[in-house]
Amino acid sequence: MTSNKVLLSGSISLVGGLGVWALVDPAGANDVAQAVVASAFEGRGWFIMLTVTSLLLFCVWIAMSRFGQVRLGADDEEPEFSTLSWLAMLFSAGMGVGLLFWAAAEPLTHFSFGKDLMPLPLAANAAMVTTLFHWGLHAWAIYAAIALVIAYFAFRRGTPMLVSAPLTSLFPTERWARLVGWFADLFAIAAIAIGVGGSIAMGVFQVADGVDVLLPGQSAGNLLIVLVFTAIFLCYMPPLFVDLGDGMSRLSNAAMLLAGLLLIFTILFGPTEFLMNAILNSFGGYLVEVVPRGFQTFTFFGDELSKWFADWTLTYMVWWIAWGPFVGVFIARISRGRTIREFMLGVLVVPSVFSLIWFGAFGGIGIFDVLRNDGTLLTVTDNDVERVTFELLARLPLPYLTTAITVAAAFLFIVTSVVSAAFVLGTFSSGGDPDPPVRIRVIWGVVLGVFGASMVAAGSIEAVRGFIALGALPFVFITGLIVVCFLRALKEEPHADG
User: Fold this and answer.
1) DSSP secondary structure letter of residue 171
2) Which residue intervals of 95-174 are DSSP H helices?
3) How does the average pLDDT of the chain come out, rounded?
4) Where is 356: in which H helix or E strand?
5) What span, in angstroms and rounded, lies between the C-alpha atoms of 353 and 359?
6) Signed CA dihedral, 347, 353, 356, 358: sign only
7) d(CA 458, CA 456)
8) What is the DSSP track for 129-142?
């Protein structure tokens, strides 16, 4: 059996086994996942925060250093895509069902927690800044660092687009490097599969609730959830039998366009003056706190705040790490010919600014409802978090249309994400083949479906978040390792001194 076959069978067995376990015994699997994650967060929370903040500082440093002029490809190679097209695709990578799901729900959840600890205006400001911290520069620094390493070794040194490539490229004759690299690819596959499976479940919950609102109904029942999951599965499986071409890109861009229209509509037809002030105020607060917050572990604030920190900030950081290999490969593929400085400015700044505006708008409406209206959205957040976005849209003109658009965007994001993930998993498990065999792609499509079904069976967003964190924990260490390999490789760059 070759190494690639062992990796393929091992990764499918690992991920598929976890998925079947969670499907057969969701309560037991959830309890184990929560216990392992809680133990890791308690003992290694400081390391997670140190790692992700170091990645952000690394990204800023590498962009400003003399290495910023190094090109991801040959020295005279031009970018494959125009700057506008490249930035549009970065938006596509950054947009997903998570932004639709948590648009207003997350700021309101943080506000609900903080309103008993501080005055309401301070609780509102803290809720917005915290949400931006979770979705801003730290998240994109994780993606950017992983993508940069993969792109550099693939386009500069001609390696396969694998997480193990830095190790096997720098230490080609060392047995330990091959062994560690093999496990790095295995854990990358597990992180991607579990992360995407969690996003499937989150999307199923939101689409089902959206369909229920359109019907209309009071809450999405099990039958509707099963029907939505089946529809998603039937829509993402056929593309796995053909080449990954422009079709998926168009679908992803269509979903991004729908989300962009929702954002503009919300700002224009919501309390515009309040929202613009909220966006600017939150942006300023975020810039002041972004680096200090990256070193904050809430050690001295008691058990309640420590638990909140673990349930939200630590979970988000490892969530982005779980998606890192997947999004990293996508960003690397579209960035050939860019300099490191161009790459970092584009990947860090543009999607982060979009996230800041997005949560400033939708979260701003949630805070407006609490401070200026009856606060009904806060009650919905506490009781039915999946429905918050639709309840928000119901307060604006044309609620039926905007709800339908949200459902369509969420559906498209899920389908395109799963198809892309199946291709990336096929690439990782076939030795870096950019066009993995149909059989392998289909197998991964089924495995992702099983894992998504198990996440749905778990029945709660908290369980989904716990599973994602469990899958990402080993990759926290691998991310730091491959960045160190990248820094070592830069020392051999002949054009880094000019």
Assistant:
1) S
2) 97-102, 105-114, 120-135, 137-156, 165-170
3) 84
4) helix 340-372
5) 10
6) negative
7) 5
8) HHHHHHHSHHHHHH
Task: Using a cut of 0.85, tell me whether the model's pTM lies above it.
Answer: yes
Q: What angle do CA 413, 417, 423 make, to 5 degrees?
A: 155
pLDDT digits (tens, 9 = 90+) for 172-224: 888 888 888 888 888 888 888 877 877 888 888 888 888 888 887 666 677 88
Please report, as a single letter, which amino acid is at residue 222. N
DSSP string, 262-276: HHHHHHHHS-HHHHH
Residue 218, number of CB atoms within 10 A of its CB = 10
Within 10 angstroms of residue 182's Cβ, the number of other Cβ atoms is 18
Q: What is the architecture, at CATH level 2, of domain 3-490? A: Up-down Bundle (1.20)
* 414's tokens: 């899920």
Overall size of the chain counted in residues = 498
Q: Which residue has the tokens 């096997």?
A: 168
Nearest alpha carbon to residue 197 among 445, 28, 443, 408:
445
Identify residue 124 by its one-letter amino acid code.
Answer: A
Q: How far apart are CA 130 and CA 106, in angstroms?
A: 9
Cβ distance 129 to 356 under 8 Å?
no
Burial class (CB in 10 A: 0-12, 13-18, 19+), 239: buried
Can you tell me which residue has the tokens 């479906």? 449
For residue 325, which amino acid is it? P
Nearest to 356 by CA among 200, 150, 176, 130: 130
Report DSSP state, residue 78.
P
